[in-house]
């Protein structure tokens, strides 16, 4: 199984804004005072287009799909939360915490991929869990080590343990389960998505180990990464706040590997951390300030990796 892919899907925003429904447990969202919604969306579109251009310039196969105005989907720019694509032709659809995010799931996006020659053989649909108030938000909640058959999950209101275990059984992953916290107004609160505090590359892992308060859990997570011979690059909680955990390794032209992150994530890294990452792949960063502030998500959340077979 490959850990990285050359193909990704990205959704261009048409009505991007701060989503009040996700702000209840995504503490990275901020209100940008004095900006009209249309200005926020225009800025997000500029950031999105510049980001796509940078990815395509190095040979990443980006399928861009426009969001539509019929649905009120301010977070559609983060498709990795509702869908994941797998090498065996499976597509998984996930139950979403925010009601207005459930509209993001669109069959026509799957049709577009099939038109591009990707093969979909089976759809694993977990979305009925929403009726029971149970959620698991795609590769936001699940960090898949596809090559080593492990799935990492920081439990939160958006990542249910039983559903995560069910996913692991269905897709044949060994579950690595823990809790990760951040300090909000002096209190330790659960981090809403695993991919905010951790990134898995082919030969490295970026992780904020300090966010795993339970020492046994922390050791267990780090032991799993060491066992799979990944170089562990530790980041701080302050760097997590700058989205340094929200990176993704992708492949460009000639299978060259890139570690994709936002400009704020890149700027928050120390020279030593940058050198460690550059031992594994070239860094590609792009400014996503508006998207990060209003959306509370960053580069990794914007890219849904496509591992489907191609005919």
UniProtKB/TrEMBL annotation:
Identify one Pfam family in the record.
DDAH_eukar
Q: Which Gene3D superfamilies match?
A: L-arginine/glycine Amidinotransferase, Chain A (3.75.10.10)
Please give the InterPro entries that the UniProt record associates with this protein: Amdntrnsf_FN0238
State the superkingdom. Answer: Bacteria
- Entry protein name: Amidinotransferase
Q: Which organism is it from?
A: Flavobacterium anhuiense
**What taxonomic classification does the UniProt entry list for its organism?**
Bacteria, Pseudomonadati, Bacteroidota, Flavobacteriia, Flavobacteriales
């Amino acid at each position: 199984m490959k850990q990285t892919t050359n193909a990704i899907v990205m959704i261009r925003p048409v009505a991007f804004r701060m989503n009040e429904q996700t702000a209840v447990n995504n503490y990275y969202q901020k209100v940008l005072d004095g900006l009209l919604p249309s200005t926020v969306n225009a800025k997000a579109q500029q950031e999105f287009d510049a980001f796509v251009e940078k990815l395509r310039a190095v040979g990443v196969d980006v399928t861009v799909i426009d969001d539509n105005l019929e649905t009120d989907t301010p977070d559609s720019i983060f498709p990795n939360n509702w869908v994941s694509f797998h090498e065996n032709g499976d597509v998984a659809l996930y139950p979403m915490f925010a009601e207005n995010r459930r509209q993001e799931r669109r069959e026509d996006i799957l049709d577009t991929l099939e038109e591009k020659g990707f093969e979909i053989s089976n759809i694993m649909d977990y979305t009925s869990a929403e009726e029971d108030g149970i959620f698991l938000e795609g590769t936001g909640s699940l960090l898949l080590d596809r090559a080593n058959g492990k799935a990492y999950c920081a439990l939160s209101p958006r990542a249910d343990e039983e559903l995560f275990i069910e996913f692991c059984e269905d897709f044949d992953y060994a579950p690595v389960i823990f809790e990760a916290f951040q300090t909000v107004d002096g209190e330790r609160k659960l981090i809403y998505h695993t991919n905010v505090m951790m990134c898995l590359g082919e030969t490295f892992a970026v992780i904020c180990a300090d966010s795993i308060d339970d020492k046994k859990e922390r050791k267990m997570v780090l032991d799993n990464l060491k066992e799979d011979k990944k170089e562990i690059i530790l980041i701080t909680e302050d760097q997590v706040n700058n989205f340094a955990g929200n990176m993704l390794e992708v492949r460009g032209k000639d299978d060259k590997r890139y570690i994709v992150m936002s400009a704020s994530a890149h700027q928050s890294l120390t020279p030593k951390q940058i050198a460690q990452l550059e031992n594994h792949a070239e860094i590609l960063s792009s400014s996503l300030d508006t998207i990060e502030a209003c959306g509370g998500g960053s580069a990794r959340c914007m890219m849904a990796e496509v591992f489907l077979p191609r005919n």
